[in-house]
Amino acid sequence: MGKPLNHKARKRFGQNFLHDRNVIERIIDFIAPAAEQHLVEIGPGKGALTEYLIQQAGQLDVIELDRDLIPLLKNRFSSFEHFKIHSADALKFDFSSLLDSATEHLRLVGNLPYNIATPLIFHLLEKVSLVQDMHFMLQKEVVERLTAAPGSKAYGRLSIQVQYLCRAKLLFIVPPGAFTPPPRVDSAIVQLTPRTHFDKASQLQKGTTADLAFIARKAFSQRRKTLRNNLKKILSAEQIESCDIDPGRRAETLSISEFVALTDQYVLALTDAASKTGG
């Protein structure tokens, strides 16, 4: 295995290279790669995690945007037959192109740049049926929003959209000193596991995930206001009550299942309105 070469972190790529071996080993312990599994690392950087993943994974693909890092990665890992580099933007990458069979699932890993973390997660959720699980290093504040429970200050649109499709768990906090250069905030490791089973009450029956996102956005448009006020242009108080939800509640108090109920009610109302007008 080749040695890492010098490369200065670039602000435009949001690069903060992980170097703390204890943190790296702890991440690998949580991931627990296996020889029969197909792993994909997003933003491998200089290969701090790659060095461990490649020893255990059956297939390891890495996606790196910074072209100057490609020679470094090739220098270190090109001798491994089950290793492949993709010089690409993960936000635009077609992850389905990595699958060798219809039954295969990908395990995604990455120390994600803060500036693309949220849009990248939404991009990946569009392909959630291809994914076994995801382990990402993110800004602590973002992980808290991903994993937040109803009633907490961090609970919001991001929590709902992610938790509808995945079980989200904060694994541990990573201090700035674990990186070069150190970021100005704490980071955290999140585990996202796509849901393979929904009970009837928690699964959309009429709406789509896009409809769910729309309802969440409207409900949280003015956080201090009630559902009656925030949703009045799209759902009446009576329609909200028909979901066994008090219109006087705030969005932050609602469970995922209650947002699902509101979404289905909204789509039903649109359908009824269209049928009455002959649309």
Description:
With 279 residues, the chain is of the alpha/beta class. The chain has 2 domains: 11-194, Vaccinia Virus protein VP39 (Rossmann fold); 201-276, Orthogonal Bundle (Helicase, Ruva Protein, domain 3), CATH 1.10.8.100. It contains 10 helices and 9 strands. The strands form 2 sheets. Strands 4-3-2-5-6-9-7 form a 7-stranded mixed beta sheet. A two-stranded antiparallel ribbon has the order 1-8. β5 (106-111), α4 and β6 form a beta-alpha-beta unit. α7 packs across α10. The longest helix has 21 residues, at 256-276. The N and C termini lie far apart (64 Å). Residues 9-13 have low confidence and may be disordered.
* H and E string: EHEHEHEEHEHHEEEHHHH
Assign the CATH superfamily of the largest domain.
Vaccinia Virus protein VP39
Major sheet: 7 strands, mixed
Helix run count:
10
Query: Under the CATH scheme, which class of the largest domain?
Result: Alpha Beta
Percent range for helical residues? Answer: 25-40%
Strand content: 15-25%
Helix/strand class? alpha/beta
Mean pLDDT: 91
Distance between the termini: 64 Å
- Kindly identify the CATH topology of the largest domain: Rossmann fold
Strand order of the largest sheet: 4-3-2-5-6-9-7
